[in-house]
């Protein structure tokens, strides 16, 4: 079996193309940290323990991109909150101020 066939692959939604994901053991992370970190600059890296995938190492930029793309939650400053979200928040705050909703 070719060595590349043993490397897990991930699919990117945006490009719908296969990307080879490198894999290192926790021992490799300790002994070859420079190589592991360098690989993470190219894309996420699997970190395994006893042959099982346990962690994924990636750059902060890659992580932030994933968080923005998949997390529907958003944080707004008070003056920047969209009107529909502000109305929902205000209605719930009013309900709680009346003493309702605490037993839900």
What do you see in this structure?
The chain is an alpha+beta fold and 104 residues long. The protein is 40% helix and 20% strand. It is built from four helices and five strands. It has helices at residues 26-31, 33-42, 60-70, 83-97, and strands spanning 9-11, 18-20, 22-25, 45-49, 52-57. The strands form two sheets. The chain has a three-stranded mixed beta sheet with strand order 3-4-5. The radius of gyration is 22 Å and the shape is elongated. It starts with 8 loop residues before the first strand and ends in a 7-residue tail after the last helix. Mean pLDDT is 79; it is low at 1-18.
Which structural class should the secondary elements be placed in?
A: alpha+beta
The whole-number mean of residue pLDDT values reads 79
The proportion of residues in beta strands is 15-25%
What Rg is obtained from the alpha carbons, in whole angstroms? Answer: 22 Å
How are the strands of the largest sheet arranged?
3-4-5
Fraction in helix: 40-55%
Contiguous runs where pLDDT drops below 50 for at least 5 residues: 1-18
Shape: elongated
Distance between the termini: 58 Å
State the major sheet. Answer: 3 strands, mixed
Number of strands: 5
How many distinct helices?
4
Q: What order do the helices and strands follow?
A: EEEHHEEHH
